[in-house]
Amino acid sequence: MDKYNPEQPVNSKHWLALDEAIRIELVRDFHSELGLEMADDALSLHSTIHVLVENQLAMGLNSYLKLLLNLQGKV
Predict the structure, then answer these.
(1) Nearest-CA neighbor of 2 among 32, 43, 30?
(2) Integer Cα distance of 53 and 45 in angstroms
(3) For a disulfide at 61, which of 11, 27, 51, 56, Cβ 3.0-4.6 Å?
């Protein structure tokens, strides 16, 4: 995996095989490319939270999937 996009489902096996630092870097790169004005610490924290959610989804924790779909207005 060389790019992250939260609008696209990740391949769970590939995602979980990545080192945690690589996952965070991929998510951080995605958000950096958006050109958002965000302090470096805030961007790091935001990216880490994305990784935590993606990890839980990749592990098949259904309650997180339901929460995500609800937050996206798809339920």
Answers:
(1) 30
(2) 13
(3) 56
Ordered per-residue pLDDT tens for the chain, 75 residues: 899 998 888 899 999 999 999 999 999 999 989 988 889 999 999 999 989 989 988 988 767 667 767 777 765
Q: From CA 16, how far away is CA 11, in angstroms rounded?
A: 9
Quickly count: other Cβ atoms within 10 Å of residue 63's Cβ. 8
Largest distance between two CA atoms of the chain: 33
pTM value is: 0.79
- Helix (H), strand (E) at residue 40: helix 40-58
Rounded CA separation 26/22 (Å): 6
